[in-house]
Structure formats: structure tokens, C-alpha cells
Amino acid sequence: MISPQARSTTEPDAAIAGRGWAGRGASRIATAVVVAVVSFAAAELVVRMLGSVDPNGEFRIEGRVLRPRRLPLADIERRITQDVSLPESFVVYDPDLGWSLRPDATSADGLFHTSALGIRDAGEVGSPPTPTSVRIALFGDSFCFGDEVAFADTWGRMLETRLRERGLAAEVLNFGVNGYGMDQALLRWRKSGRAARPAIVVVGFQPENLLRNVNVFRPIYFPETGVPLSKPRFVLEGDELVPVNLPALPPAEVARALADFTHQPLAAYEPAYRFYADHWWLRSRLVALVEELVDPPEIEAQFRDDPQIARLGARIVADLAADVRANGAALVIVHLPRRADLEDIVAGRELWYGGLLRSFDRDYPVAHPEAGLTSVPETFFLPRGHYSRELNAVVAGRLASTVLDLWCSSQGGAAPSGACSSEPGRGAR
């Protein structure tokens, strides 16, 4: 048995030992905290030294713009006033579409011209097509419009030429407009395309347009845009397309809405605005860089992270196809990959939108200009990324085959001037 005296001497020793362990543990924690703080501060300093703040107040590092991004409001307001609000502006506000092309207009550089219908240099549409001709209407964005090239070098103009060479008296009308999403292509068909009474409607599927479908204010999605306006978009309620921002905000209201966008009701329909949200933790450049890497702004990542984007794109095409059929015409899709997409195809890599494209192949005639390509020559693309005359010729050739297959099938192989007398199977791929 331990005597009371012995117990009184041993218990303080144990307490002292316990306090020693606790003290050493607290010291380790304190040391770890100090190391973490110093390491964080050092990393923060390195990020700040490697980056810089641009005139717009945005922090840039290694080609990345860190959050929060900042809208160039003064520049946007200037562009609204000088680029889209003047009587001579080539692109003008359209309440039903967001923007469209001014009829009978010529661009400032003289490269583009529109007809009285406000379509690219196609001339007046006269009487409805005769039984011996076929009218084809094109809808899409700048890849359809033919940005950076003369009218003669667009794939739409070349398509008309190719079809006539093969014996089909074709008339091609180009309703493409720079900056359009797939939603605006659908709305432009409804507003202007139906009245043209085409036999075939071609919609250009440029995959980046999928992200434009979930955009309302063009400058938020693309701050450097030459079209600093808002646009209608659709949201899905079940399988139904419900329009938002229709009619589109007038130009004079766009700058005011962007200046206080957090309190703008349309902010709920602008997923890209999260890149502009100013959170307290983003005061750290290091944290902002980590957030940029974890939640990147690249369209592939946004598409992957939001399955609604694919559903919305598919629904827009389905509604367009149904409306086209209801008006006695047929729909054709032409795949218009960007340079990076085309490089992935040639390299045998899976496309980020490959699942959606395969669903289009199952449901519609699709022309694939990329079929058979084994390389991507530099001469295929122009400085701003649009197709050169060389690549437009490839598109026109593939699309002509698809159109002829569709037309000949609808005519029972009895199209005019022997257009259907050649070998079948010119088709989509």
C-alpha cells in the first residue's frame, strides 16, 4: 500500500508530466500555424509578384484573369453609343433577337454587305421557288455568316455554286449573324426565316454556341465583344422552352443593368456572372488563383459541370426541327468545329460535346466537314479563329453532298437536271 505521503509526492509528478506533454503539443500546433501562415504569405507574395493589375483593375497571371473579374463599363457604354446605336451601324438592336443586321448596310471596312432583308449580300428574295429550284436558308453565328472573308469566300455562297454545278438550281440565303447563340438562330428562323419559304434549313452547329445559350448579357460572356447588348435566352421548364429577356433590354438600359448587376433580376439567368462576384476571400490573389484552377472558365469545364447546357441545346434544335417540318421544310445540321475541336478530332481524342453530337447524328442529317481530314493546316483558320476560304470550301463540299442526298430522297430520286443521277451515299459523313 502506498502511504498518503508517497501519494502526495507522486501525483504532482504526474500532473507535471501531463502539463509537459500538453505544452509540447501546444507548441507543435503553434509552430504548425506559424509555418502555415508564413508559407501562405510567401505563396501570396509570389503570386502577386508574378501577376499584374491591368487598366481595368483585373489581376492577370500567366494568361489568366483572376476573380473577381471586372466589366469595362465605360468602354461598354462607349461601344453601345458608337457601335450599335448610330444610324449607320452595321449591327443594330433588335427587341426580338437582341441584335440583327441593318438592311441594305455595308460594314465599316467594306467587307460585308446586307440585302434589303438584312441578310448577308443575298439580294432580294423574289417569288417563291419554282418546282425546278430549291431554296436553302442558313442560320447560325459568325461561322455561318462568314466573318473575316468576302461573300464569295463564305461556305454559303460556295454551297450554292456547288449545288448548281451538280445540277440543282439552288438559291442559298444566309441568315447568319455574328455573336448569335443557337437560341437566337431559332428566334431568327421564327421571325424572318419562315417567310422566305425555304425547302431546306441549314443550322450551323458551332459547339461554343452551347454556352451562349445560357448567356443574357453578351459583355458578361465576352467582355471584348463588338456587340455589347443583351439577348433573349431560354430556360427549360420540363421539356418546354420558356423565354427570358424577351423583348431584350434596349441598349440604353444595358449599361445601367451591368453597373448594378447583383441587384438585376436577370442575374439569376447569367451563370457566367459568378466569375465577377466579389467575395471577401478573393482579396487573396492566391485563393483567387486556386479558385480559378478548381472552377476554370473554359467552356469545356462549364459544359461538363452543368448537364442542363446539353439538354438546352438539344431542346433548341428539336424545337427548330419541329417548326421547320411544320412549315414544309427539312432541317440539316452542319458541324462547324473550332480549331481546338478540329485538332482533337484529327488526333482521335473524344470531343467535349461528343455525346450531344452523336445524338444529333441519330436524329438529323448532319454534314461533317471534318470527315477524312488527317491534319489541320494553318491556312484553315484566320487570325480571329474563323474559317478561311480553304476550309469554307471543305464545308461547302460536304454540305452539298448532304443536301443533295436529302433533296433527292425527298424527290424520289427525280430532282431536276440530273442532280440525283450520280452515285448515292454522298451524305453526312
How would you portray this structure in words?
Helix content is 43%, strand content 12%. With 429 residues, it is α/β, with parallel strands linked by helices. The strands form four sheets. The chain has a five-stranded parallel β-sheet, sandwiched between helices. Strands 1-2-3 form a three-stranded antiparallel β-sheet. Helix 1 (4-50) crosses helix 9, helix 2 packs antiparallel against helix 8 and helix 4 packs across helix 14. Mean pLDDT is 89; it is low at 423-429.
Put the structure in a nutshell.
This protein is of the alpha/beta class and 429 residues long. It contains 14 helices and 12 strands. It has a 5-stranded parallel sheet with strand order 7-6-8-11-12, sandwiched between helices.
